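Quarterly update from the structural biology core.
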Amino acid sequence: DNTTTCETATGSRQGVIGTVNPIPSAPSANNVVGASRCESGVVTLTATCSTGQTVQWYASQSSTSVLTTGTSYAPSLTATTTYYVGCKDNTTTCETTTGTRQGVTGTVNPNLPAPSSSNVQGGAVCGSGVVNLSAVCSSGQTVQWYASQTSTSVLTTGTSYAPSITATTTYFVGCKDNTTTCETATNSRQAVVGTVNPIPSAPSAGNVTNNSRCGSGIVNLSATCSTGQTVQWYASQTSTTVLSTGTSYAPSIAATTTYYVGCKDNTTTCETATNSRQTVVGTVNPIPSAPSSSNVTNGAVCGSGVVNLTATCTTGQTVQWYASQSSTSVLTTGTSYAPSITATTTYFVGCKDNTTTCETATGSRQGVIGTVNPIPSAPSANNVVGASRCESGVVTLTATCSTGQTVQWYASQ
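Predicted structure, tokenized:
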């Protein structure tokens, strides 16, 4: 008592307890789960305390400000960030000491750049068909192919892609990190173009020139493609061997031969389809034979003058008359020829086809002879014998010509 100074008997004193509560341990490393994401955004982190305790999340090891409480925390991050967790006893309110808090990391992995334009290779095909495309990402990354800039469906993966296309098509590629699984952002994907180049048409019938010749030899053929294309010549419709290129082709042929032409684009190298090639014909027309010896008639004249000669060719052919075997000058045409000659002369005949204009070869012409026969001299005065008689009656006159000649008697000169 403050006045009397009397005190409670020792045996009657009341006990008062001072309790030391344990400080909760932080969640162990096995009881926290960090998380990662590609680029900025929300990441979900988790941590677990013992029963009867609440997880408290902090921005740093020493912070006194609780960001949130509970087993999960989903902050929005722009960079990799480590948070710290401690435990608070729900009864005693004791908390993990700052120095022992457990770190929980939210990782922000960067999205990958797409392959650069120098690391993609478009392709081209002539007409519809398979086109070979390629792209390369950095080491540790996989190329992903998409049908559009924004598509979420991966067409295929890998450095090469060989789609079958019927029209020029743009595909898009991005890269996926094999470790983080982060991918190129859709709007950063790189375009890879598969081009369908048109197949050139063959020259039209109006743009090829057939040709013919008489007998074997060189024939001049020609064809024209559109501007920027080259004519290609083939021996057959399906041949893959180009005989020659260019608008003209001059083969040596022994028989009528059909060649085929297509066009090759000088830029795309696309060629006319084999079954669309245009035909170009080199025709070998037969050389007409000369009239046979039985089909020519020689002629003769006594002394100088006109001689009548004839020759006949096959139907559809015209007789041509020449002064010599090798002459290129036609004297006349037709079945008959009546030159005026002063000496025996050999003419030559050949035949010209009225359709093909082919002519008999010079060395094969048939000779037709116009003969000038000498005029016999009259019997000389020594070879005639006159006669006389008395009065009217028969007289016998005689005359003698050269051997092989017959005397002819006339009443007047």
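Residues 202 and 262 are 5 Å apart (CA to CA).
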